[in-house]
């Protein structure tokens, strides 16, 4: 599994066109995104961590008045974001070294954070805190329980990992976030396990 974890960045760089083509634009995530937005002020700043090509998640946020900053390790995917949404900010960066020097009203890590090894996921929570304004909302997806799994994309291994729910709760609490909602394998959202939290 170590090799597949190491290959995530390269995988999304080499297969950006295929990912853009295959990623559905139907927004099954809309209910969760709108709950996230309900916690934010008007015209909020949002950091999209692992934004991919900006569709459909960032598009939904932009269409609702958010000023989006997106980061992703895949230069081709960021290139698509810049073409599609040139009024917003898009940066090529490894989310594990996230250090933008500013705070946002909302942070989202949808289908991105769970590609990190468990040890790297633990280190992300202080980074979330450093980028979260007072009262900021945090929305992310994880696995349903502690473990690692390897799927496939374009015939290559695709790494995923998760901590146990109780560890996510502890890390959120230690970094100043209160859990607003948590659903394991939400059937109304494609089986995603979802966390919505807010900075105290």
TrEMBL record:
CDD domains: AdoMet_MTases
Gene Ontology process terms (BP): methylation
EC class of the enzyme, as a word: transferase
Pfam families: Methyltransf_25
EC id: 2.1.-.-
Residues in Methyltransferase domain copies: 46-133
Keyword line: Methyltransferase, Transferase
GO terms assigned for molecular function: methyltransferase activity
UniProt KW DNA damage keyword: no
Top-rank taxon, per record: Bacteria
UniProt keyword annotation of Transferase present: yes
Name the UniProt record assigns to this protein: Class I SAM-dependent methyltransferase
Lineage: Bacteria, Pseudomonadati, Pseudomonadota, Alphaproteobacteria, Hyphomicrobiales
